[in-house]
Amino acid sequence: MSEVKLFGAWFSPYVRRVEMALNLKGVEYEYIEEDLKNKSPLFLEFNPITKLVPVLVHNGKPIFESSVILEYIDETWEGPSIFPKDPYERAMSRFWAKFVEDKCSEPLWKACWSAGEEREKAKKEAEEALKILENEIEGKKFFGGDKIGVVDYVGNVIAFWIPILQDVVGFHILTKDKFPNIWKWGDELCNDSFVKKNLPEKEKVSFALKRSFETGSLY
Fold first, then answer.
1. Which of 9-33 are b and which e, b meaning 16 or more Cβ less than 10 Å from the residue's Cβ?
2. What's the rounded mean pLDDT across residues 211-219?
3. pLDDT at 1
4. Alpha carbon 131 to chain centroid distance?
C-alpha cells in the first residue's frame, strides 16, 4: 500500500482543494498540520524550495504547488476525474484554472489586503478579469459542466474565502449585483454536499482573517 502524507494549514484554500481531490479519489492519507510561523524540520526537508503548503508526499517523494498536485492526483489514482479526458478540454481547463488563479483570485486578495493606489490598481485588474469569468460561467452549473472539475477546485478561493475576506475588511468587489453568474456558481459550489464537507467553518475563517487583518500578518 502506498504511503501518502499531506502537509497543510487548515485555513489555506490551496490545501483544501488538494484535500478535496484526495477525498474524491478515496485516497487514504495522513494529514499533518504545519505551523507556518515555526515550520517543522520534516516539512522543510520535503520542501526546502518554496517552503509553502500544500506539500503532498507520495512514497517519500514530495510534490509542490496545488495545481501540480491536483494533476498528479488525477493521473495517479483511479476514481472520478478532476481534469477532462479530452485533450482539448483538458488544455482549456488548465488555461481557465490559471486564469482564475492569476487574474481573479490574486488581484481580489491583493485589493482586500492593500490600500490607496495599490488597492485601486488591483481592483481594476480583478474587475476586468471577473467580467470575462462572468461570461464564461453563464448558463453552467460548474465550470466542469454538471460535475465539479479542476477550475471549480481552483476557484474555491473566489467562492468561499473572498466573500468572507471582503466582509472582514469592508471592501467589496465581487458582489451578487455586479457578478450574478459567478455568485450563483459560488453558491452552488459551496453548498454541494461533497465540497461542504471539505470546507473549514466560515466563522473560524472569518475570525482568523480578522485577526490577521488587525495584526497586519496573514499568519
1. bebbbbbbbbbbbbebbebebeebe
2. 74
3. 55
4. 20
* Residue 215 confidence class, pLDDT cut points 50, 70, 90: confident
Strands 55-58 and 30-33: unpaired
Residues in Cβ contact with 182 at an 8 Å cutoff, skipping those fewer than 6 apart:
130, 133, 134, 137, 158, 174
Give CA–CA dist 166/76, Å, rounded: 37
Q: What angle do CA 192, 181, 184 make, to 5 degrees?
A: 30
Percent with pLDDT over 70 in the chain:
98
Q: What is d(CA 108, CA 203) in angstroms, rounded to the nearest whole number?
A: 20
How many other C-beta atoms lie within 10 A of the C-beta of residue 137? Answer: 21
> Is the CB of residue 138 less than 8 Å from the CB of residue 181?
yes
Which of these ranges, 5-14, 90-99, 208-217, has the smallest mean pLDDT? 208-217
Sheet architecture: strand order including 55-58 = 30-33, 4-8, 55-58, 61-64
Strand ranges (E), the chain: 4-8, 30-33, 55-58, 61-64
pLDDT at residue 24 is higher than 90: yes
CA-nearest of 33, 30, 28 to 8 is 33
CB contact at 8 A, 97 and 151: yes
